[in-house]
Amino acid sequence: MAPLNLLKAWLKSLRGGQRALLPGVQVGQARANAEALQAGLDLSSDGIVLLDNTGRVVAFNSCAQALMHSPLGNLQGADFWNAVPEEIADEYRSAAEQALLETGSHTFAVRHAFEDQWVNYCLRRHADGLLVTLKDVSAIHRASRLLRSSEACNQTLFDAHPQAMWLFDTGSRHMLAANHAAAALYGMAPEALGALFVESLFPDGEGGALLDSLPPSDFQQEMRLCTQKKANGERMLVELSCSSVQWALRPAVLVSVADVGARHLADAHLSRLNEELEMRIEQATGELQRSRGELQAFTSAMLHELKAPLHVVDGFATTLAERHGAALDAQGHHYLARIQASSLQLARLIDDLRTLTYLPSMPMTPERVDLAPVCQRLMDELHKREPARHLVLEMEPALPLVCDKNQISLALACLLDNAWKFTSRREQSWIRVGLMPGKNSAEIVLSVSDNGAGFDAAYTGKLFTAFERLHASVDFPGTGLGLAIVKRVAQLHGGEVWAVAADKGGASFFMSLPQNPQDADSVSGSPSAA
To answer: Which H or E run contains 145?
Structure first.
């Protein structure tokens, strides 16, 4: 209020000068007071205009002159309402004069459209006239405009949101607002819903206990499952998602409501279906196990019953050859040889069928095995069957592998027998056995390759199917079950099998076998002849 005090001192000196001529000292003092007053006004960051009791300007600062946008060049001595733009005087003069008479002060805000500037005028009466302060409040008005725009946008989003939502006051628990989706959910108008207390939405006093359980301070996404009632009294199972917010500068809770009755009914129905499905699976599993047991019993009995008459046929054929061979002509010896060969073929088929049938029930005992001695033993047995054959076996001195020894030995015997058979017409034949890394460090691939007759790549998919033959049995005899046994062994180990035909004859068969990383050895080096 320093400018006002200076004004009082200045006016006092003027009044004294009107009563008598002022001595030179008094005139100098008045001039000093006026200069001090102007200096004080110029120091203010707001616009200040001092008016006498007649409403004329007696002092002002440069900030006030800029904010007033006055049409006058000099404000000194001008009537205040003539000093401001005409449209401001027309709009605010009457109300300001009335308010000054009644309360002694009046405030209004003016917008200068061209500059997009808002100026706040504050008029206050004192004993010697009026004090007018002007303040640039453009930033406040722009922030207020943005705030109102944001609030309007939020309100629009709130009203149009498809999720049912409502707000209530934290203290009074009175509903503050509800959107259209909430009104449709509860079956009442948004205004009627917004006039309720929260507890009225809950049946049998459930609302009080639930709301009391919410955290007392700021919180986000508190989920509650409860029952609510509609306007017609119908109850519904809902899931409430509650979050603390500020609504119109008041602490409130925003509640999102989801009708989950249908979902819970669907979950209950799905649960019943799952129980029924599990029961059916259990029953089907039991029936499958019983059928499998019956099939195994039947297969065992059938193979046993087939083996007995087969031994009889082979025994009589052998006796016939020993006792009456001299009496038979060439045709008779041919028939007898065919009988013995067919008996041997049928015996091998029965053995392979028994092996293929009982493989899944064989105990699995993984252990660390060196396949090199196993391969050598199997090749020695093949050489005993055909001592005249000359074949080179190429393999590393050691072939370490983690597997079930009995099953892998069986699969390796089938692969080597297959390679031995299809290289029989080669003058210089070889079989190569090796190990190589698989798709990752937990897998090793066993490979058996040969330079035999090979196969047509178009029929690769049939190679590992039981009784599928890509060559005539007259050319390359066999049961047609060897590669099916290899595939079953690989599957029991959790691996796969595949084959690749060479361009100039020969074939390579592969079996992937999962390994534990700490048990699998890296495989490298050149093959050696055995």
So the answer is: helix 138-160
Note the Cα 275 to chain centre separation in Å: 29
The DSSP H or E segment spanning 89 is helix 86-102
AA identity, residue 323:
R
* DSSP letter (8 states) at residue 79: B
193 contacts 175 by C-beta, under 8 angstroms: yes
Distances (CA, A) of 94 to 70, 88, 89, 98, 496: 19, 11, 8, 6, 99
85 and 170 share a domain? no
> Please, how many CA atoms are within 13 Å of residue 232, restricted to the half-sphere of its CB?
5
Q: What is the pLDDT of residue 95?
A: 93
DSSP-derived 3-state class of residue 183: helix
The last residue of one of the domains, among 136, 159, 188, is 136
Q: How far is CA 356 from the centre of its chain?
A: 45
Q: H-helix or E-strand containing 304? A: helix 261-324
Model-level pTM greater than 0.90?
no
* Total number of domains constituting the chain: 4
User: Residue 210: which CATH number?
Assistant: 3.30.450.20
Tokens of 21: 């001529």
Structural tokens at position 85? 């733009």
- Give the 3-state secondary structure of residue 478: coil
Question: Which domain, by its residues, includes 213?
Answer: 143-259
Select from 386, 411, 379 the least CA-distant residue to 481: 411
436-478 confidence digits (pLDDT tens) = 988 887 889 999 998 887 777 766 767 777 656 554 444 445 5
The string of DSSP letters for 362-406 reads: SPP-EEEEEHHHHHHHHHHHHHHH-TT--EEEEE-S--EEEEEHH
Residues 10 and 23 sit within 8 Å (Cβ to Cβ): no
Give every strand in the sheet of 250-259, ordered side by side: 175-178, 164-169, 250-259, 235-247, 222-229
Residue 271 domain flag:
no
